[in-house]
Amino acid sequence: MSTGMKIGAVIITMGNRPDELRALLDSVAKQDGDPVEVVVVGNGSPVPDVPEGVRTIELPENLGIPGGRNVGIEAFGAGGADGYDVDVLLFLDDDGLLARHDTAELCREAFEADPELGIISFRIADPDTGVTQRRHVPRLRASDPLRNSRVTTFLGGANAVRTKVFAEVGGLPDEFFYAHEETDLAWRALDAGWMIDYRSDMVLYHPTTAPSRHAVYHRMVARNRVWLARRNLPTLLVPVYLGVWMLLTLARRPSRPALKAWFGGFKEGWTTACGPRRPMKWRTVWRLTRLGRPPVI
Length: 297
Description:
The chain is α/β, with parallel strands linked by helices. It is built from nine helices and nine strands. Helix 6 (about 215-230) runs parallel beside helix 8 (about 255-270).
């Protein structure tokens, strides 16, 4: 039963997966309830042919994942009580596919039932095997991907965000370009009193991949991890958080080139501007700890 909440969707594309994009758009169009308004952002590339009614924006340069998504968010910012035309925005990878027709309705019901709920992280599953990778379950206890829970972060290409969150804490950090931008937004949302849920019944089919397929992965992960800490953590926790992550990285025994790139990114994170610093309150640190992920891990 539709609650009347208006839902939009933001999809960024590099224009190189036209068939997958069309399949995703078809899966969005098949959602139960009121139609989902869609904006497709060509991130430094033309947008392939899309169905009638889908809005498109073509950027002259690649602004990165958070920058591209922020342009999509702004496309919905023409009105409404909180400055947005819709109540909820879906963010979906252009090579993903909504597995069910009731995902939008489940989002409406979840946000309507819980006024404190700000973000929902969907479950990502391989379309052929149904397997959900551990890294796609946004909590430390990730062995059971079918268990719903409160979490402290979310998956960037498979989620729903209440637009009131953006109105209150701002969008994704443009300067991150790729990696950890979701956690930056999640920490700011949690600090403002919002909650985040992981929902296993809201499924995005997505081919199994390794994040390290991106050439810039190791440098970006390290640089943005430092930026994340510098922007959001109380001063006392910054060295603890980054020290733990350095030990974890070394324990994973990356290749020599990967380790070199990681340390280069780590240095870059300290020597370059990271954007505004707004350290979270200590009660938010305790809240993260009670949710099972203190901000030192």
